Amino acid sequence: MSSARLPAATWWLILSGCTILMLSFGFRSSFGLFVQPLDEANGWGRDVIGLALAIQNLAWGVIAVIAGGLADRFGSVRVILAGTLLYALGLWLTAGVSDVWVLNAGAGLLVGAGVAGTAFGIVLPAMARVVDESRRQMVLGIGTAAGSMGQFLLAPVAQGLIDWLGWSGALNAMALMSLSMALLAMPLAASDRPAAPAGQVVSPEAFRDTLRLARGHASYWLLTAGFFVCGFHLAFITVHMPPFLMDAGFDPEVAAWSISLIGLFNVAGAFLAGVVSGKVSKRLVLIGIYGGRAVAIALFMLLPLSLTTVLVFSCVMGFLWLATVPPTTGLVATMFGTRYMATLYGVVFLSHQLGSFTGVWLGGWLYETTGTYNVVWWAGVALSLVTMALHWPIRETPVTGIRPTAVA
Domain Major facilitator superfamily (MFS) profile, which positions (predicted)? Predict the structure, then answer.
């Protein structure tokens, strides 16, 4: 397949998967724009709203592990359909929220579960399974870039809906739009066939062997620990960047365009990361990304805050935003293959979401406690340096000892 053109059905599957990722990430990335409206409508502090969005990230991570296992066993389409319904329900509940427990259940648990069923951990493995190894990193880069394109396109749309319909009406509109992911899931059924040669079935022992080897694989756990920091950065900035800018006197539209620019520049960053990590060491690509983040955040804190620094920082961070995903997913596939990739990547992604929970919650709590976000910004710099060190000893070699198939 490496020298031939991809079949039309494969491109249709990739296009459908990319559109699902655009919608899933676009809606989720817009939640920072609702922090101030929710606070003003209900008198909640940012620690309360931040906790709900931290629950969203944690639920996404925990349920992603379960969703990955279900997708490996029953297929990605069923998981995406369930995720779509939960996503829409969570947005709808948040639209009429007046109680904290409803906020935690809607914007927190249900939206988090919905994203788990419609995002990278489910869609990227489905896309990776329909191409050969020579094109895998490119396809992972395309899918990751699609998520960022959704952030670029839908953050301004969400702000426009807030201006037009109010925050509650905007969430209702987003709930209706999210239901389209159910139709887009249908072409992905072609990737749900077992990843075993004809005449063979996947051995139950192979799954147990893979998990056993993953438990004792140092490089896998170093990768998992490093992804915590990626989640810390992304979730903190997504949720707290808009109120941070509004506190500094910028208009809400500037905050929306900051999030949007991050998504736009990550289209290029994620795609380039996918291409480059298919040609050079994925470990070194990740070290470079985290080093770049440390420099970008430090300069953003040290330079005077202005429209120029906001826009430049958004562009630079956008280029590095989800660029970690292609080399990270690629390392999982390199180590263990693609058969149980959704499950194994789900474990790595759980660490990412634990970092997301920490970044969102800590940002809100420290803001209410100290009146500033500065401590969390500088913590992001320090964690970047730690992560660079964690990635250095990672070995990019396949794990031996897995029994992938058994003769039927």
Answer: 5-398
Q: Quick one: which of 172, 181, 164, 161 has its CA closest to 33?
A: 161
Q: How far is CA 364 from the centre of its chain?
A: 21
8 Å CB contact between 162 and 170:
yes
The whole-angstrom separation of Cα 298 and Cα 407 is 56
Cα 181 to Cα 148: distance, rounded to the nearest angstrom: 16
24-51 as b/e: b if 16+ CB within 10 A: bbbbbbbbbbbbbbbeeeeebebbbbbb
Q: What is the CA radius of gyration of the chain?
A: 20
Residues of the chain with pLDDT under 50: 1-3, 194-201, 405-408
The DSSP-derived string for 321-358 is SSTTHHHHHHHHHHHH-STTHHHHHHHHHHHHHHHHHH
Whole-number pLDDT of residue 199: 42
Question: Does an H or E element contain 123, and which?
Answer: helix 120-128
Provide the b/e sequence for 255-290 (b: ≥16 CB within 10 Å).
bbbbbbbbbbbbbebbbbbbbbbbeeebbbbbbbbb
Please enumerate in sequence order all residues whose Cβ is within 8 A of that of 365, keeping only pairs 6 or more positions apart, or say none. Answer: 47, 50
- Quick one: pLDDT at residue 306? 96
Q: Which residues contact 160 (CB under 8 A, 6 or more apart)?
A: none
Please give the pLDDT value at position 402. Answer: 55
Find, among 375, 379, 376, 362, the residue nearest to 47 by Cα.
Answer: 362
Give dist(CA 40, CA 26) in Å, integer: 24
Task: Dump pLDDT digits (tens) for 95-134.
Answer: 989 899 999 999 999 999 999 999 887 898 888 888 877 7
